[in-house]
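Q: How would the structure tokens look for this protein?
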Amino acid sequence: MKTHRTALVAALTFLSLCAAVPAQLKQTDDVQTVQDMARYADQMEKYLFVVDHLARMSDNPTASAIAAALQVSEILKDKPQDAIDYFNRTLPDVKSDSVRRVIRLQLAELYRKSGQPDKALEQIRELMILAPAGPAHSTHAATTTHPPAAAHPGHPTEPDSEEK
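A: Here is the predicted structure in token form.
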């Protein structure tokens, strides 16, 4: 229901913007008008894509939290130590393993950029030792356009590859 409401709002916004376009285009020739309308339609398509993406992400708490962690890095990109401090204060309270992994990846990159390779490697080590045993899985895998890992030559799950 929430997604339908969001789509309705986006459609109404699109229609109201379409009503304003002819008034803006009256003073141009036909070729320019068509080009302007094509650019406008392209921008609206991108806008609707973003609205749809945000609506779907808002229904997924983990995806929203990961987006928030990435946003912190963006907000504090000119203040890496502030970002490091923020993530280190936040990490103990984070419940989701996926979000904790993203934060550790962000910390590793921030430490690397700020000339602290030992601390970056410490975060990477934590990621490696905290990875659960067993086959890898992903709720995102079904929506990616990448071929499965077994499609890559030499991958351990490929039938012809040898175990080492």
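The helical segments are 2-25, 30-58, 61-75, 80-90, 97-113, 117-130.

The two ends are 52 Å apart (CA to CA).

Upvote if useful.
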